[in-house]
Amino acid sequence: MHRHPYLNPGLPAEDRAEDLLARLTPEEKAGQLTLYFYLGTGQPVPDDFDIESLPPEHRAFVDQPRRIEAAIAAGTTGGLLFVKDPKLANTLQRKAVEESRLGIPLLFGFDVIHGLRTIFPVPIAMTATWSPETVEAAQTIAAREARATGIHWTFAPMIDVARDARWGRIIEGSGEDPYLTSAIAAAQVHGFQGDFGPDRVLAGPKHLVGYGASRGGRDYDDADISDSELWNVYLPPFRAAIEAGAANIMSAYMDLNGVPASANRRLLTDILRDELGFTGWVVSDANAVRSLETQHFARDQKDAAARALHAGLDMEMATFDPAYDNLPQALAEGRVSAEELDRAVRRVLTAKFRLGLFDDPYVDEDAAPAVLDESAHRDAARTAAEQSLVLLKNDGTLPLDAGKLKSVAVVGQLADSKRDTLGPWVFAHDTHETVTVLEGLRRRLGDGVRVGHAPGAGIVERAFPSPFDAMDETVESTPADHDDDAEIDRAVALAADADVAVVVVGQRQNQIGEKASTSTLALPGRQLEQLRRITATGTPVVLVVMSGRPVDLRWADGNVAAIVQSWYPGTRGGEAVAAVLLGDVSPAGRLPFTWPRHVGQVPLIYGHYRTFEPEQQGARYFEEESTPLYPFGHGLSYAEFRYDGLRVDTPSLPLGGTAKISVDVTNTSTRPADEVVQLYTHQRHGTSTRPVRELKGFQRVTIPAGGTTTVTFALGPDQLRYWSAASAHYVQDTTTLDIWIGGSSTTPLTTTLDVTD
């Protein structure tokens, strides 16, 4: 017999939450809606430590863990962020379960973005696999490692559509296309959450909504988005994540159309819940509720709390002094209603019951090391990296023939940087396990080939340091005594004496991500100068680009033999790069964004409108082509593919009906390889104009040498409806559709289909 119904595991989660909700005081309810950053180590501050002697800002950080632990014991904290040690998690959980009045367990959240201990390629790279299956498998592993350490909830996936390469957080998402982003979003939610089992974590898609459209690509700046773009571009990935079962949504920092997203009732209630059908709970981004006062939206912190809660924001993430501490007083003054407060708390409690925290709140500390050390996880990371690499250019130099090589020059600081190989947004990594490009090539080529390395040109530091560097002891940078002239000379000499030069260029991992927007896409420092000099030696050059955004490769595209976009490929990334360069794997990664020639073209997308004089689209600028260097969906292969027999199974398509579009893809080469088959449409006339091409389907398929595979896509109302500004709702038109299928957004193979009444 259970003392209270909420402690009975045989009851539905909703019933248990309702019983517990009725027992909470207003202060305890406000506490359940508070998620704290936990800045402690679990070790108490010594009794003889003179905390008062510290400056106020330092004193607050030292004292913060003690204050939070007191709140846990009082039952006025709903969850903690950044606890990654299972022993510490259990210590804090015991305080909540055994010391607080009602024993409500904590939710532990963490940024598990592209792996915890096993680091997969960065999210933009995972999208470049164009394989939802690979993405789901990777996040399943990430969830397993996270849950083994006591983490219940990840602040991922980031599903902001990003069309401005200057924006640092482009690396966390899936690029410019809403259809591709939606497919990858659903795969990540499935991978993280599964069936809410003991080896899964709650997914928290972010940031609702339009964060990727910030002005000038500047992090945290406001966004002004038309209703057409909001519904057709930025909201579809959230719809997909919700339909996949996402338990949580994170709101954005910035002002959206003049209203901060974290207190925007139209966004958080009318759209998210009434239109998209979301039933979980919404959490703010870090200190975003407190920021409502900073943004000159709220009068004070009590006003901020009341307006955020009324808008539909359930939980506040805060470092210090949460605004939601003011909710009991706001309730007493009638600023918020008991119904509003209870609704938010009910959502949070239901999630805790669904996850099983009341019945099994602790993590098995002894089991965690075996899960984190699982070798199969590292193998999966290598496979994902192999699938993500994009061959941008190749004059036939690749793949390299190991049997004909005597010496290889590997140039670049990034070529042997373990930390940069992992990319940003990792916090529980082990760089000792990381395989760099240099190490990968040496392992693959063995003792029979001389593989020399020259760091070469230095990579200049950020003008404004990254706040994340202070949290990471493994950050690498150019040494203070680095002699650029001498090191470039040495790199050039090494390349001149080699059979081939593998030159690794790009940006360090702290030059992209949050607070890492940029005003230029140029390679940092003298990397381009060095590349020019190495190319002038006559040694064939294979350029490996380590970045999470497009960089200026105009000169390289016209002058080097081959270019591979390696992204930040993760724990086993160097092995993956070596496998592709040596031809063990045929590259099949495809670009998830349009690659501009120059920063002045940004934003540049494939799905633009025809507008006036469409035949002059490539001549919009007077001094340079306004076309991309590489189109969306681009990627070369070591195999060759022929597309034939594009056909539609119906002569016309009635409104609401579904057509099947098929094509035969033949591998005309002598090696098996993957191809990414892509379907695009254009609507010729209708209620509104539509983009010149829109991705409506894709499949990554493995085709044997000489083999033919038939690929079929379904094209129906889910793909063809759109939100029209002319009617202010979704429509599907009678029209004529142009249909293309091929290997990129510029494929020429086309047919038409009439949509009729």
Q: From the alpha-carbon coordinates, what is the Rg to the nearest angstrom?
A: 27 Å
Helix fraction by DSSP (H/I, runs of at least 4): 25-40%
Instruction: State the shape.
Output: globular
- Report the sheet-strand fraction: 15-25%
Describe what you observe in this structure.
The protein is built from 23 helices and 26 strands. The protein is of the alpha/beta class and 757 residues long. Strands 5-4-3-2-1-10 form a 6-stranded parallel beta sheet. It has a 6-stranded mixed beta sheet with strand order 11-16-15-14-12-13, with helices on both faces. The protein is globular. 54% of the residues are buried.
Q: What's the helix and strand layout?
A:
Blueprint: H1 13-21, H2 26-32, E1 34-37, H3 56-73, E2 79-81, H4 86-99, E3 107-110, H5 123-127, H6 132-148, E4 153-154, H7 178-193, E5 202-203, H8 227-234, H9 236-243, E6 248-250, E7 255-256, E8 259-260, H10 265-275, E9 281-283, H11 291-294, H12 301-311, E10 316-318, H13 327-332, H14 338-354, H15 368-372, H16 375-388, E11 390-394, E12 407-411, H17 418-422, H18 437-445, E13 450-454, H19 484-496, E14 500-506, H20 527-536, E15 541-546, H21 554-559, E16 562-565, H22 573-581, E17 641-648, E18 652-654, E19 659-667, E20 673-683, E21 694-703, E22 708-715, H23 717-720, E23 722-724, E24 729-731, E25 735-742, E26 750-756
Parallel strand pairs: 1-2, 1-10, 2-3, 3-4, 4-5, 6-9, 12-13, 12-14, 14-15, 15-16, 18-26
Antiparallel strand pairs: 7-8, 11-16, 17-19, 19-22, 20-21, 20-25, 23-24, 25-26
